[in-house]
Amino acid sequence: MKVSFHEIAEAINQAHRIAILSHVRPDGDAIGSQLALTLSLQQMGKEVSAWNEDGLPESFRFLAKSDLIHRPPSDSEEFDLAIALDTASQQRLGTALHAIRRASWWINIDHHISNPGYGDLVYIDPVAPATGQIVYEFLRAENLPLTQAAADGLYTAISTDTGSFRYANTTARTFEIASELIKTGVNAAAIANKLYESYPKRRVLLLGEILPKAQFAAGDRIASLVLTNETKERLGIQPDDIDGLIDSVRSVEPVLVALFFEELPEGKIRLSMRSKGDRVDVNKICGEFGGGGHPRAAGARIRGNLEEVSSKVLQRVLHEITKSL
Q: What is the pLDDT of residue 316?
């Protein structure tokens, strides 16, 4: 599943017009990786377009140069090279995928174990805690430019996907890279303040709405939250307001699996699933519903209404929990 960094660098060197894409509902890893690689390739003299179906989330606008990330145009365009970052399946590029009329080469750089390996050049490292860590290793290995704004983006990518260096996916190398980025001038405290201590008021109001309705099952080993379209519309909730809310119940003792069901306008339910420990592989469960991710963090989009989808998923998780006891 891996080509060498040198092969990826060669493809970049031979290209002039490059598109860098990330998944719908982008998180810090997607945006930080996308921004860092965009800035590096621009420094090399490449013509780069950075697209995401949802554009730039409000929560990451503090990053310098982040306004380089746009929604894709309505008319498709041709590129020498398209690079997908942090995107487990090509379809999760959404409208950004359809905005590529043609690309001579596709590069797929990711850390999701569920990634099937689409593209011409594929680099998937499921051990890496964040795609941002892979991008950092790539830039350093190939002596490509790393600007201050790019370093900030990579630190953001790694911090968010490791839960601020708390999750089990954090390795010794992750801390080394964080240290190296700080030595380049990254202000870790300032970034942490923006990521974890600068939420909009509407997010607090949202927590006040959904936490009292949290459901627990299997002797409190399963916890779930539900978010309806009505609540989102009434409170003016933005997609990035929802990121991390699942941790409110995941952190409860003795919860083993946390679920977040979000109603979407198009008749689907967005499922987020988190597991504590190795007893339950949530990537496997989400894969059965057409999604995927990591063994301890995965998701899916499931057609149906909240009641039927949540009931189906809860029964499946309950079965897995019972097996593990």
A: 97
